[in-house]
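Hello support,

Our group uses your service weekly, and this is the first time we've seen a run hang past the timeout. The protein is Purple acid phosphatase. I'm not sure whether the cause is the sequence or the server load. Input pasted verbatim:
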Amino acid sequence: MKNMEPKSMIVVLTVLLIVGTGADYVRPPPRKTLHFPWSTKASSHPQQVHISLAGDKHMRITWITSDKSSPSIVEYGTSRKSYNSIAEGESTSYRYFLYKSGKIHHTVIGPLEHDTVYFYRCGGNGPEFQFKTPPSHFPVTFAVAGDLGQTGWTKSTIKHIKQCKYDVHVLPGDLSYADYMQHRWDTFGELVQPLASSRPWMVTQGNHEKEEIPILKKGFVSYNSRWKMPFDESGSNSNLYYSFEVAGVHIIMLGSYTDYDEYSDQYNWLKADLSKVDRERTPWLLAVFHVPWYNSNHAHQGEGDDMMASMEPLLYAAGVDVVFAGHVHAYERSRRVYNGKLDACGPNHITIGDGGNREGLAHKYLNPQPEWSVFREASFGHGEFRVMNSTHAFWSWHRNDDDESVRSDQVWITSLVGSGCLAETSRETRNMLIEP
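Update from on-call engineer: The timeout came from a worker crash unrelated to the input. Re-ran successfully.
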């Protein structure tokens, strides 16, 4: 090393120091928000196409047209350019001060066969799209990424999710980061269309979806208009919370930004939904919401405490296996935990608000690391939850390391169905979920 240039020697010594001390991975700074050119598509052509599950064997197709006279019809079938079925849906639009949305179409199609590729066309015009329905039995794979936004890192995350052979994308809030600038909802829809038009995206709201202006504008107008979820199919009266099932998995999507105390509609709906879960038919039970309850990051510390105090006993009594949350722009995985302590019958909590937003990463963590926290890192990435059978699932987190998807955390998770926990808590569960 004695013949090295001083600058080169510094680099080598720095690398040796990092390797020798096992330093934490340090992410590059956040990338700039993407900018999109004005669309040159015909006014009747479908834009921002995305799909979502809509009850048993049905799919909701959503798209937007500039042409207000475009019909809300979807033609579909299992062969290219050959459609043997047609469905007609509904449409809506909204104003946000000077902004006026296009015509937003929502059309439910089905019944559909499981694990089958369908080809479809929206509004009788424009290009052909295709999607694959989820399987009816294990294995089934969920891609999980929250707090997406519209940056270069978002683009990397979307690219990596596309490489994952997933069946459903679960998004725990903060989609577009439009933050009142309504055209950013349109550019987000175009950005995610290649993925969201080919696999169902199931989302719940985050704080960036609220867009409320006291007295002038109520919250979630844009979100509710554009991203309609199967709330009515699950007995909910609000698009902000609902449930759905895929293969042998029951998933509860909760709202961190709507009332959740024991007198609220959401709380009562949750009790009713959990009381109907059949663990023989759906041995896996997951919950998804935006603000994490178990978070050892300085960012958003304690913001989920009130919701946790209200709803954690319900999830524990029902034997929820895994909880996914976003909000904190970093990744963290917990051991099974309940009431702040390790508990073999509690859920694993996973914070995955690291999709690629423009606000950057949350680098500061509490020290010492809590006993319940297993792995934590401030990097952008996405997760994959592959449920292999009724008792075992494989979770992996993939860091966006220099634009490559690098598996950086992984663990096998055993369902509580085979643990004895459900038998132990069955009486408590029934009392808690059935009592008025």
